[in-house]
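Board notes (copied after class):
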Amino acid sequence: MKKARLYRLGLREAANLIRSGDITAEELAAALIERVAAREKDVRAWVWFDADRLLAAARASDARHAGRGRSDDPRDALSADERGLLTGVPVAVKDIVDVAGMPTGMGSPVYADNWPRRSAALVDALTRSGAIPMGKTVTTEFAFMVPAGTRNPWNPAHTPGGSSSGSAAAVACGMAPAAIATQTNGSVIRPAAFCGVVGFKPGRGQIALDGVLPFSGTLDQPGVIARSVDDAALAASWLTRREGAIGHRVVSLKTAPRLLAVRSPVWERATSVQRERLSADVATLRRGGAEVDERELPDHFAEAYGIHRTIMLHEAARGARALRKRHRALFSDYLNAALDEGERIGVREYRAAVRACGTFITEFSRFLTDRYDAIVTPPAPGEAPAGLDGTGDPAFCTLWTLLGVPAITIPTALGPGGLPLGLQIVARPGECNALLAVAAWCEARLPFRNRLLNAR
């Protein structure tokens, strides 16, 4: 592959080439910098990107890899295997996650000059893998709903989704092989689906939140965005609280999966294009050998959406109370209105919502019986909507975020508007490895060609 085209490499492929000596971290960084220069003016994925810093970090990684690093760096005494599987590979970081030496702006003027001294725990874990935090990607305001100008790389007149807008857009068009993202409602899955990439959230409690902007402590769930299930698994494997919780490699299924196709309680919000896409994807999986039954959740699961909003806005309002007393005028009208709504939610109503969430988790585990490996369902209402004043409807993610279960989306086709459509796959709490195995099986039978990687 020509050096200038190294931006097309996936996460694992890039890491393997660096480890084998076929390319250097500096060469990869230079190719990504060139790609950012070529696409950023149209996509606007980055809020902070320092090419010189990235090149310096890549050179330092190459020096350590060759055993020429500084003697006071403990990584210099490690073997190539011990340094981590992602040695020298740049990874983008959403701008609500602290990285020492980089600003964390939270998508708000409130944090216009916020330079954290310490990195978030998940960034420290990423660094232990050998990866290089390459810059900060655009987030919506405080990772809620107000967009900040990022455009969908498939069509700049359309939203990339949110709140992990820059993370999804950067990965989709080759500016980064992978990115850190977070989800409180639909902020990993929806933008990944809109941008034609893989979005994976391992679920509640799997990845530490220290050093990540808290919006709703009950619901906030970090995740990753990449261009394949294997790459998403590799990135996430380094980030979990418990070593080995997610394997560095996806284990292949020995038999075809048993799946439940669930339209979800918000099916009426799906476009005809998305409905047809789900039917077509299910038919393809069946032809590939999967057993796919169709079944709907009990009717009362429709109540989960109000419960999610109650928990989210009550916790967000409580967490932002002191900040809003000082800086309310710097918050958007939209966010202020949402947080005012949260202030009106009483403690009794909030506690009842938390209890109801626990009940739904139990009921979901019974619904997805041992007979089935996972659920397949839409990741979004359809193609990314036109306009940059919103980020699209997160409703097809809300329930799975409330339940705290692992979820992943894979791209499966382009819609009639030339924008991606995808398939969301959901498993029981804690079953990340099983989910990834199912997703990889589905991905192999629903191949998607990302033509953005061939476009300048």
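Comment from the instructor: The chain has 14 helices and eleven strands. The first strand starts at residue 46 and ends at 48.
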